[in-house]
Every structure is written in C-alpha cells, then in structure tokens.
Write a structure and sequence with these properties.
rod-shaped, six-stranded mixed beta sheet
Amino acid sequence: MARKSIPSLPPLDWLRSFEASARLSNFTAAAAELGLTQAAVSQHIRLLEERLKTRLFSRLARGVALSPEGAAYLPHIQSAFATISSSTTELFEPRAVQIRVPISFALLVLVPALPDLAEALPRIQLDLVTIHRPTDYDLPGSALDIRFGNGSFPGREADRLTAERLVPVASPALAGAADWASLPLLLVAGAREMWAEWFAGAGLAGHPQRSHRFDSFVAAMEAASAGAGVLLGSRPLVDAALENRTMVPLSDFELSSTSGHFLTRAPTVRLTSAEQDFRRWLLSRLSSAASA
C-alpha cells in the first residue's frame, strides 16, 4: 500500500509575516514589528500564496485586507503561535509562584527547603510575601497562602502541612537549671500562647512569672536562643534547632495541638501549572519529613 504524502509546512518566517501583516493590515508595519524590510515581508507573503495556491490579501492603496481565505487561515496560525509560545514558556522559561506565608514558617521551614525545591523543580521561582498579621491575608494577593490555625478558613480550601506539638525549649546555657519552670517564660501572641494548657497537660503547677512577649514565633525563638527565657517550642518549627542543639528540650512531655500550618487556596481560582507543581512538592516534602 502506497504511503500518503504529507505536505510540508510553510516556513515559519512566511507564517510570521502573514500573521503580523494580517493583524496590522499593513506590510510596512509588519516589517517594522518583525525587524525586516518591507520587501522581505512582501516576498514572504508572495511565496506563501504561491505555496498555498491561494490569494491571502487584497492589495489596497494604503495597506492590505485579508481575502476570505486569508481570514479563515489567520485564527489557525494565531492559535498555533499561541500554543508554541505557551509551551515554550511552560517548558523552558522560569515559572513564578507567589505565596503568602507567616514569617516564622518562611524562615524555619521554607527557606531551609529551597535547595530541595531547586533540585526538584529547577525552574520554579518563589516570590515569598511574609505575613505578620492575620489581616494581611485579606489584601488582594496570591492564589496560594500558608496559614496557621485549626484548618477552618472561610472561603478557602486547606491542605494540612503540619500538626503542632508543643514542648518547652531553651538555650543549652539554661538547660542545667534545677527548676526550669522558675525561669522567665517567653510568650507568643495569638494561638501559641498556651503555657497554661501545657502545664495542665503535663500535670505541673504553672507560675505567674512571665517575661517578654513577641508577635512572631521566630522572634521569640531568637530570644530563647539568646538565653532570655524558656519558649514553648512549636514542633516542627523548632526541630532543626533541636537537631543542631542550639536549643534543647526541657521536658519529655509534648502537648499535641489541633492547630498547625495549612496550604490554602480559593476554590474558585484555577492554579497555574507552576502553582500546582509547587503545591504537590510542598505536600510531598512535609509528609515525608513527618514520617521520617
């Protein structure tokens, strides 16, 4: 059985000249846009018309007008160029992902994970917008954000990233204190101010002594590392510090909390492919870390 011959495609330069001329209704304007001479564009159109055996333009006193055949051809060429452009961007150009995230989670979890992200998704470029107050989430922004709470975020779909466990931690210099509970207790504003719950869960009597109060966990953690007092450490945020022993746990009892970090998104917003890839990577990384 004889093979059916496949007609060759017209050269890309001819098609680019056709698309620009059709869009601008002028060979000279198309030439200026493409960085060619008017004669080159005119020749491309002539050769394309000879190849297709069809007149694509009517030549006017000022400019050109598409013939019915040219008008039918144009949307197909523009669609093909759009597909090539989007595929090139998707496959070869950097892909930006903006995400709003609490500063503590950004510094203690995401930043240490950036080398792994670069290896897994080398073309993803993160645009991290750090959140300092809950009202910052109400501002127009990215499709994805990371929030701390119990998982209920009105108008948002949420995937759990962490399940918080609370344990007292301090710098090694304070670890030898005979009664660590008598040391100043560092406070964190908001949902993590749970010293009373921890003492109750541990079956210990709390005490009224309090020290400095911070509006972010990472600031309180720096104070604890400096020896300013005892912090109710949120795991897994303090895991790296415990591993490298810049801070040490002061009790074996960990209070499990219903709170944690969640990756959230609006259900009505379609994520870009880059955002979808980042979401899959983050969920996979943190689930792997939790099971390690």
